[in-house]
Design goal:
single chain; alpha/beta; six-stranded mixed sheet; 7 helices; 6 strands
Length: 157
């Protein structure tokens, strides 16, 4: 079943994203969810560093290592096989939009991961297109985090 809610995450850099996502991913894996990635650039180096710095049970490490953290783009067949899975998408603003058009509500949940500079340049569009934001506090409703007036030149608070 495809979830109607849309998710995003905002990070300062790739390491920040990995540290921020791991508790969420770990919780979802414990619930039996399957997680796949669509990345413009690899996060493997950051994830490997994370494993060396954080003390995790071997069973949790094994589950996390099954996730593909390298650069990858999904084919139509792979997207079809992503049903009932959580999909992490990271890359440029254009890349994320392109991948979301390909996914086109075909998967359980998509979490679009934006770097801070991309978010700053496109914050209104990003916030309008998502219902929830994932951060170090967990998953929060955007309407609870940002009180925005959507007219031009207003300040997001």
């Amino acid at each position: 079943m495809v979830e109607n809610n849309r998710y995003c995450a905002v990070c300062v850099n790739d390491m920040h994203l990995v540290v921020m996502l791991m508790p969420y991913i770990e919780k979802e894996l414990e619930k039996g969810e399957k997680i796949v990635t669509i990345f413009e650039d690899s996060l493997k180096e950051e994830v490997d560093l994370f494993y060396t710095k954080v003390n995790l049970e071997n069973s949790k490490k094994t589950k996390l290592k099954k996730i593909e953290w390298t650069e990858n783009t999904a084919s139509e067949e792979e997207i079809f096989n992503m049903k009932n899975k959580i999909v992490l998408v990271k890359g440029s603003y254009e890349y994320i939009n392109k991948m979301n058009m390909c996914l086109n509500d075909k998967v359980n949940k998509v979490i679009n991961c934006f770097e801070l500079d991309i978010f700053e340049k496109n914050s209104r569009e990003i916030l309008k297109c998502h219902d929830y934001i994932l951060n170090t506090l967990g998953v929060k409703k955007i309407s609870d985090m940002f009180h925005a007036k959507w007219y031009k030149n207003s300040i997001l608070t």
